[in-house]
Specification:
Number of domains: 3
Largest sheet: 13 strands, mixed
Number of strands: 52
Shape: elongated
Helix content: under 10%
Strand content: over 45%
Number of helices: 2
Length: 493
């Protein structure tokens, strides 16, 4: 029975790796500068070619280099090692890193200098993440910086600099960059070539003229999830966003989440990311005259458009937003698409405050919001407009409508600068004042338009005068009555 137990134990160890015949220690299939990583040394791997701290965790399959200098290669036995992670701490140096089967990930906040190559020939996936790697493959016998045969290469949020005699990065099944960009060569290309001896297509980073790039520099960037025309806004370009479809000045402040358009023309759209990339809250500040030939897309949270400037566009989409605020600025959409300023069925509230807006649309100028609030401005077209519940093409919500209840395809909203500029006058007389249920206004004729504003400047009642006005529906407070550019204070008890 004891022999059977021993045999079973040895059998399962043999499935995972080899027993070193001389030391009777388990061998993990890794060599560091000629030193085998075994059960007796994996927690602190030392040798003549190793300085600093090198360790291996067999449970997580993680090799850690901590300010290590390795005078030689890191080599993996592809028949034993399937998947490996190399974590970098501090500054590290090695000659070369060779293949594993499965996936090889190099990560960590540290750096690595490689005086040879990183080979990935037998791997399904090669991942470089978060770290900094500098490869010099210009030696007498080393001509390639990173090569992978059938391996897919993913470089994510990492800095990578590679120089080589033949090609810097290539021979991969595919190359993907996430949160980083190729800075050199300028006008690079990622191209598939079919070359001997395999004659299967492989992917290389190339120069503008299609030749293999012998120097590649990749820098990590923060992607803010904003696209101006087709230009992605990142930490690298946010202070001055330029492109073929952009004139004027466009910039983004990630701390305040403010996109500023300063006398800008954008031949395309302003697009905010989708899914997990979607921006939560954004402010678009307008300076001078600005034009967007297409649309402003949606964010999550709140989208605010403000500033002293103006904007022309074709559509402002507000799906997924909790709040959409247009404040102080001027928006002019003379030839909008079918729906111009709209929310969809996602419950966004629209607030228009001290702003001038003019919209002509094919079907819906402003609508399909959970609520629409005007502060310090009023609808001047259509005359006798209503903000009411309606439904268009299956989308139910609040719409700005014509007097007959149909959805307006043209809406003009003007800032109520008059409330601040017009002095209170005694030419109209309101009584009783304070009031509770009804008021009468002297010195005006029937059929005059009477508007009542609350203390914020929001229109709370708009009626055509006919001998008296009911105010029973108004809450107690101070209001302003406006008739023919004359105003008078009213107190409701």
């Amino acid at each position: 029975m004891k022999r059977l137990t021993l045999f079973v134990a040895i059998f399962f160890i043999a499935l995972a790796g080899n027993i070193n015949a001389q030391t009777n220690e388990y061998y993990y299939g890794i060599d560091i500068a000629g030193v085998e990583v075994v059960s007796g040394n994996y927690s602190n791997i030392t040798g003549d070619g190793i300085t600093g701290f090198v360790s291996y965790d067999p449970e997580t399959k993680t090799l850690t280099l901590d300010n290590a200098t390795i005078d030689g290669s890191i080599w993996f036995n592809v028949e034993q090692v399937s998947d490996i992670t190399i974590t970098l701490v501090g500054e590290n140096t090695v000659s070369s890193i060779w293949n594993v089967s499965g996936t090889k990930t190099i990560n960590g906040e540290g750096s690595l200098k490689v005086s040879g190559t990183i080979g990935c020939f037998y791997e399904q996936n090669t991942i470089i993440e978060d770290c900094t790697i500098d490869i010099d493959a210009t030696g007498e016998y080393i001509r390639v910086g990173m090569s992978g045969a059938s391996s897919t290469l993913t470089i994510k949020n990492a800095n990578l600099s590679v120089v080589a005699s033949e090609f810097a990065i290539g021979q991969f099944a595919s190359i993907e960059l996430i949160d980083c960009e190729i800075k050199e060569p300028i006008n690079y290309q990622i191209i598939g070539y079919t070359l001997p001896p395999s004659y299967t297509e492989s992917t290389y980073i190339c120069n503008e003229d299609d030749s293999f790039a012998k120097k590649v520099v990749i820098k990590k960037v923060t992607n803010y999830g904003i696209y101006i025309d087709v230009i992605r806004v990142t930490s690298d370009n946010c202070n001055n966003i330029i492109g073929d479809g952009i004139t004027g000045s466009v910039s983004y402040n990630p701390e305040t989440k403010t996109l500023t358009l300063d006398n800008a023309t954008i031949d395309g759209e302003i697009y905010f990311g989708t899914g997990t990339e979607r921006i939560e809250d954004i402010t678009i500040t307008l300076i001078g005259e600005n034009t967007i030939t297409e649309e402003i897309r949606t964010v999550s949270g709140t989208k605010k458009i403000n500033g002293t400037g103006s904007l022309k566009a074709r559509e402002i989409e507000c799906k997924y937003e909790q709040n959409t605020i247009i404040e102080d600025c001027t928006i002019d959409i003379p030839n909008g698409w079918a729906w111009v300023l709209y929310s969809g069925d996602d419950g966004s509230k629209l607030t228009i405050k001290n702003a001038n807006i003019s919209i002509e649309a094919g079907t819906v100028a402003i609508g399909d919001f959970a609520d629409i609030e005007l502060i310090g401005c009023e609808i001047v077209e259509p005359v006798n407009a209503q903000i009411i519940d309606n439904e268009v093409e299956g989308d139910a919500g609040k719409y700005i409508c014509n007097e007959d209840g149909t959805v307006a395809n043209k809406v003009v909203i003007k800032k109520l600068s008059g409330l601040n500029d017009i002095a209170q006058t005694n030419s109209i007389n309101v009584y009783p004042n304070p009031a509770t249920n009804e008021i009468v206004i002297n010195n005006i004729a029937n059929n005059e338009l009477v508007e009542i504003f609350d203390i914020t400047g929001k229109v709370v009642k708009r009626v055509v005068y006919n001998n008296k006005i009911s105010v029973a529906d108004l809450q107690a407070g101070v209001y302003t009555i406006k008739v023919n550019n004359q105003i008078q204070k009213l107190v409701i008890e």
